[in-house]
Amino acid sequence: MKKLASVLSLLLVLLAIYWSFRASMPVYKSDAALSDTLFSTDRALTHVKALSQKPHGVGFPAHEKVRKYLIDELKKMGLKTSTQEGYSLGKGTNLSKAKNILARIEGTGNGKALLLLSHYDSSPHSSLGASDAGSGVATILESVRAFLSTGKQPKNDIIILISDAEELGLNGAQLFVDKHPWAKDVGLVLNFEARGSGGPSYAFIETNRGNQNLLLEFIEAHPEYPMANSLYYSIYKMLPNDTDLTVFRENRDIDGFNFAFIDDHYDYHTAQDAYERLDKNTLAHQGSYLMPLLHHFVNADLNHLKSLNDFVYFNMPFFGMVSYPFEWIWPMFGLAVISFIVLIIYGFRRQTLKVRGILGGFLPLLITLAINGIVGFYTWPMLKSMYPGYQDILHGFTYNGHTYIAAFVLFAVSVCFGTYYNFRRIAVADLLVAPLLLWIVLCGLLAVYLEGASFFIVPVFGLLAAWYVAMDQKRPSLFLMVFLALPAIWLYSPLIVGFTVGLGLKMLVASTLLTTLTFFLLLPVFGFYRNKKSLAYIGLVLFFGYFVSAHFNSGFDADTAKPSSLVYIINEDANSAQWATYDQVLIDWNNAFLGKEKQSAETGSLPILSSKYNLGFSYVADAEMKGIKGPSLEKKRDTIIGEERLLEIRIVPQRNVNRLEIFTNNSPIISASVNGLPLSSYDLPNKNTHRLVTHYISDNDATELRLTIPKTERLVLTFNEASNDLLQHPFFEVPQRPANSIPMPFVLNDAIITVKTLVFDIGEE
Description:
Layout: H1 2-22, H2 41-51, H3 61-76, E1 81-90, E2 94-105, E3 113-119, H4 130-149, E4 158-163, H5 166-169, H6 171-179, E5 186-194, E6 198-206, H7 212-221, H8 230-238, H9 244-252, E7 256-263, H10 280-297, E8 311-316, E9 320-325, H11 329-349, H12 355-386, H13 401-421, H14 428-431, H15 433-449, H16 457-472, H17 478-503, H18 508-521, H19 523-526, H20 532-552, E10 562-564, E11 567-571, E12 576-581, H21 588-594, E13 599-600, E14 619-622, E15 632-641, E16 644-652, E17 659-664, E18 671-674, E19 677-678, E20 691-696, E21 703-710, E22 715-723, E23 741-743, E24 751-760
Parallel strand pairs: 2-20, 3-4, 3-5, 5-7, 10-23, 11-24
Antiparallel strand pairs: 1-2, 2-4, 6-7, 8-9, 11-12, 12-14, 13-14, 15-16, 16-21, 17-20, 17-22, 18-19, 18-21, 22-24
């Protein structure tokens, strides 16, 4: 009977783990024939397919075609559309000419407007942009169509902003917020984004103040599959990631919601961000957010969403969204501490707790934490050493990444079962003291340093109740213990996977440690198992099975293509040319150009190019000079005014180009502007960065640079001009990549780069 109870309780635990993922998002079913008033994933997919035929970053030919398609689709709904065009300096002094698409649905009231937001540009230069952010645009188009089909007139105006140049520096959103008259009308933003091609869509509340009113409105709208907790946004704020919504919050103090999915991260910003790889369940999840929120917020009071109060919140199967004020954090923590003290006194009085057993219970806890922490921390360096090609997956999440997560979670579980088997003679009630003390200390630290994670105290109450049962009953019901452990299973199972998916395999340590911590919360169940040794062996066998599976899927093919890179660089000042690559492991395709003469790149001899991960070239080789011209540099003005020197320079492309980067030497710059837009003092070059500005060029436009420097300083400007046409340029015979390779994202790739300097000596005018 005991064995049967153990088996059944384990099956219940596994079922609860499964349900924590199953309940997180809808399951796609073909719905093309669905009522016109409802969101149809199939109808949204037709937009995704149309939007992701070719790369359509700013300045690329398909960019204009995508814009025309979106305008036509909005007009089909009977909406009057407009465009907003202009230069904008976005995040990181990235200049571009954005072309926003706008439409407005008039409401019956005179309150603030609801803004629906996503961007239509794809990441330069190879991304097809199906998920990022074709999925967001398609979600808005289909939801607006369905809403209009109801024939209902909203109370609040609905502004539709399909922004441009988000990938370059949030330029389109910046342009709208700074210069469009509608910006002052916006009361709330719903923004749809992607950082992968699958998985659940997470909801982030973004506000400068408290989240109380926004959260309560979100709960009242009742989205069917909410994936949201206050920890996500706490972590998001720590990361160097921004979306268009950031501009609204920072520049206009406008609150909003971000809805973004992050799984299958390896597709992000790559040629594999294609229609065929977008998870249909994920797109359905985006629609399951927008439809109820749209119907709710078009009639809500958007003038009074501000609040000074913050709430802790999380989602849980069957319960939906659970929330409580920050003011409850310390009382709840205090209640847990008092309960712990009362129960430990109760246990000693009943003589069900033994000092020796309690002290002995700290050993398996420390052993499992140490082993699983060390293994998790060193796994990613080990994997990169075993499979050097992984170094070229800059996302840090490999195609077989989910298999590695499964393998090392199983390894952690095996270590836990094996270790606690060796301490099986200690009573379960004694064993639970160490985990309880650890979790209480952990929750206290979170209450101080990461308040958004304070809901971690909730499963601790389940553990306290289970501890009481273990002290009160010699053979408690394992089914009761599973029930008390459900909060731990439902809260932490998604996080065990989500941390590593979101932050890369370098964070496998988060998965192994959180698995261990969750195991401690399940000790009231597992501690009574007599077959812990067998379960440890089963976990170890499964670990090896998954690891072997990952090994056999560690190579690259058409579905799991290796990122590769190649650029051609002309230094006009030195009259020399080089081939260069960012790859750590070359493939035959680019090795044919670098050849046996390739050498490790020297930082000082190559142009500095900005990239997301500050990645430099790995290998270079001398190349034949080609008749490719760099930009024309025209000194329009060079004047001394008092103690300052005013410079005006016009940079004009002499070929079709996509990007111009301007760097300076150590000379201080008093002020600067580009194409009439001033750079803030915060954005001017300093000892940490010499980059002045990056201009993502449309229509081969010129760059107008105006600088003020001390007259006693010598200024050196370096102009790196690039075109992403290496594979198509008639001067070269670079073949297309093999099917098992894609352009490396996040770097300037498939490019012809010219380097040219301009020197302004002291006393020279």
